[in-house]
């Protein structure tokens, strides 16, 4: 297996805030999840790998070289940022075309590639609509499209599932798996283990800027499963929805919030699958799912003791 | 839906990596994209309207003047171009367009898209600067040409070779002013958080204060070198005005030869653009967000 990212004593601080502390890690080809609660240093790590930040101490090598202002490295990587920011007054097609040209392509190549990537992320039909009119899922897909224009060997996806509805998440899972199948190395960040679990079993666990664990997901998952997991489900009829979980052996507790059903479960995967089925079958009981990460926080605290 | 998506994806293979152009291609791409983007901006209309306002003055003078003497069109044209186009409108157009060439991406958090593209940062900055210069020059030179046309309605200015040469000379100076002010503001846009405020202070505050205060500090202004390029020694008139305003304060003026001024302006522009490129390479544009 070839190494795509290698760090040595990598640290980054902003003033007195330590974002990453002494990370020694090698990441090999394939799909890797960067897992950690908010503020763990996931985005900082990705930005260091992209060369958007300089390390305060230590080194990071991506595809064999330091990434900052290194055009050779940048030619091999793509980036889908977490922020939902786009250029003003652009259609999806114009956005991807603009960034394809900025990649260094000729006009004709950029046009061809833009159409191909838009088709790849299933945005061909809506690519000529203004981005302002896109749903969250469509904006996410067009951001991924722009990251694919250079046919990168390594793709960074910063919180790609954030804000997506269950259908959007399913599509995103499929897309990432497909990218992995195509031989791309993908590094995606998330604060939800079950999202990462859907696409890879390789994970790096960050907490408060430190690397807690790096390797197979199973061991971490076993730890997490010992803690009840909280899932908030947006629903127009939470009480009817709750009946579907009364006999579920994994569900430990059910409570209600205005317009929401709150499930405490030992078997979150089964719960997520059940909820996704309700959503995709158009039972109209599930409007959206919020994955609380407080139990993950508990696991991190447990691991750091 | 998921099965449909998967079957759709099965039929599409990922494409080959596209070819990557050289430096010139990156420069031209940056130029054309910025040019097209600026053409679509509403601020372009506002900038054009403001820039064309001076055209009305000679026209109004020709039709509504109550003076029993015919206005000297040549004097009016020189006054308009020197006082309004070069000293007010050129910095204003730099504020309108150049300040946001880099600053807009920094403020709009779209900088990571650009900084993760495999193109030289210098080509990106220079292409953008070139697009600003092309658009601002077109607006300002059109305004100068229309003002010239308006002034021919008065006396002593004609569509003769000499007067047209004078107009072209002023256009050249206006372009130098745009380049100088633009280089300063694009640098500020890349470096500071509120580039427009800092640019206004420097272009309209510092430059005028430095010209008025005794000593040699006016050498630290772009205005000094731009005015040295003017076809007539406008600074002599400025000097008289300043002495009149400041009374006893005497300012010794040291004139700069046009060629030296031109060389100095080129150095200033090169230094400012160089600092901008280094800033784009060096600065961590996402850091502010992370900290917040």
Structural class of chain A: alpha/beta
Assembly form of the protein: heterodimer
Helix percentage range of chain A: 25-40%
**What's the architecture of the largest domain in chain A, going by CATH?**
3-Layer(aba) Sandwich
- Whole-number radius of gyration of chain B? 23 Å
Q: Tally of extended strands of chain B? A: 0
Report the order of strands and helices of chain B.
HHHHHHHHHHHHHH
Q: In one word, what is the shape of chain A? A: globular
Number of helices of chain A: 11
Strands of chain A, count: 13
Q: Largest beta sheet of chain A: what is the strand line-up?
A: 5-6-7-3-8-9
Strand content of chain A: 25-35%
Number of helices of chain B: 14
Overall 3D shape of chain B? globular
Structural class of chain B: mainly alpha
- End-to-end C-alpha gap of chain A: 33 Å
Question: Could you walk me through the main structural features you see in this protein, from its secondary elements to its overall organization?
Answer:
The complex is a heterodimer of chains A (305) and B (292). With 305 residues, chain A is an alpha/beta fold. Chain A folds into two domains: 3-222, P-loop containing nucleotide triphosphate hydrolases (Rossmann fold), CATH 3.40.50; 225-303, 2-Layer Sandwich (Alpha-Beta Plaits), CATH 3.30.70. In chain A, 37% of the residues lie in helices and 28% in strands. Chain A has eleven helices and 13 strands. In chain A, the strands form three sheets. Chain A has a six-stranded mixed beta sheet with strand order 5-6-7-3-8-9, sandwiched between helices. In chain A, helix 6 links the parallel strand 6 (154-158) and strand 7 (185-190). The two termini of chain A are 33 Å apart. The model of chain A has no long low-confidence stretch (mean pLDDT 86). In chain B, 39% of the residues are buried. Chain B has one domain (2-13, 22-291). Chain B has 292 residues and is mainly α. Chain B has 14 helices and no strands. Residues 233-239 and 288-292 of chain B have low confidence and may be disordered. Helix content of chain B is 74%, strand content 0%. Chain B has helices spanning 2-10, 23-40, 42-52, 56-64, 73-98, 100-107, 111-115, 121-151, 161-191, 195-212, 222-227, 234-246, 258-282, 287-291. Chains A and B meet through helix 1, helix 2, strand 5, helix 3 and helix 4 of A and helix 1, helix 2, helix 7 and helix 14 of B.
